[in-house]
Input
Amino acid sequence: MKKECLQENIAQDEHFVLRDIFGLDVRPFTELHRFAAEEDILREGERPNYLYYLVSGRAKLYLTHDNGRITLINFLGAPCFLGEMELLDEEKYSDGVKAITECVCYAIRINECRERLLNDTEFLRYLCRFLSRKAVGNTANYSRNQSYPLKNRMASFILETAVNGMYRERHTEVAEYLGVTYRHLLYVIAELVQDGTLIKTESGYRIADLGKLKRLFIDFN
Amino acid sequence: MKKECLQENIAQDEHFVLRDIFGLDVRPFTELHRFAAEEDILREGERPNYLYYLVSGRAKLYLTHDNGRITLINFLGAPCFLGEMELLDEEKYSDGVKAITECVCYAIRINECRERLLNDTEFLRYLCRFLSRKAVGNTANYSRNQSYPLKNRMASFILETAVNGMYRERHTEVAEYLGVTYRHLLYVIAELVQDGTLIKTESGYRIADLGKLKRLFIDFN
DNA sequence: GTCACTGTATGAGAAATCTCATATCCGTTA
DNA sequence: TAACGGATATGAGATTTCTCATACAGTGAC
Output
């Protein structure tokens, strides 16, 4: 991770987006962090030192079960807070968050302003709205998902997770995330390859026919 | 709806639960409302005059689509806020909430204390925690759901919605909520009747074998 | 009363998805 | 090096779920 702790830059940034979110001027506590694709942003079980605000990039949210199984819980796209639960909830241990593409985040040193944040009504109101909208969005998403065959959901998933036209997720993980058997996932991927939608390569699946993929995705809405 | 506006009672209530949630003493703005089963608690599209806190009972959350279709979005059980989004979000119109069983709610007259609530950090923090936990719960619930056949999900659903051992939901609605076709829902209900788990009567389906239903539900965890 | 509309109901065949079995490959560890 | 666990692969058959078609009862509009 590349820390660009240039607070001078942030301090002078006229368009600093967090200004609209916080009542408190958080610039003195804010750094700019850059995570490469695949890099961990929040490590599971660790209490983070920062409250992150994802400015650009996409990330995934993980959870490891008691039995050691890892589940992909959700996707996160900018703009979005990361680690907000850990800020609010004393008991809450962090879920894992990993960058899919390069991610740029504002990182607020919560150790230095936790109390002030928890008393910043503007921030708290923003967070409540953010959380309740996210909940509504999730619910809508779920109920839509349930209603379509895997091929469509898979198209959506591939579009969401591919980087530079390459899809390289773990089949086992994805099967769990999408709630289907590993076997079935392979069937459907094989179908997409058969279709000419994907091409299997050494290093992953290359999107060969973006139009086809998008059409599947659209039928899905 | 029976309003029991006995603020004297509330004012004297030593164990008033909202005391732990709000920094502000909301007792002067709080009434006790009682809704019968099937009664509307929040009417869709209307801006509610109260922020409700469900003390006991179960309710369901509805949404009407542009095309007029009604979808059952979710279930709500005590303790739970109702109408919190509408308090926070200016633009947000209310979803519909309808009582399943008799519901007892504290009803806070937001017109009289909206500003103060939106500046009550204790309340806002509580609400953030509540929302984020709800989101986590939903996600967990959702991913579990995906993985089980309708018979199990149906058992869970019947246990959740039955009142006094009678199940009377609309099949069309339920099919939509559970994300299956109407046809398939009927198949599975027929199976449960075949089983001897349910008995079809004039006024709905009677739970004939609670044990069987619970076993289906348990296999589902 | 008739017409549309919605909910309920049932059948038949097709598609989606699951279960179980088996095999290979790869990286880790003993 | 051998053994092992995890990920990838593929086949066969069973189960779940969907699509389409059809029918009947209730309700509100006209």
Q: What stands out?
A: The domain at 148-220 of chain B is CATH 1.10.10.10 (Arc Repressor Mutant, subunit A). Chain B has eight helices and twelve strands. Chain B has two domains: 2-143, 148-220. Residues 149-151, 180-181, 183-184, 187-188 of chain B lie near DNA strand D (CB under 10 Å from a C1').
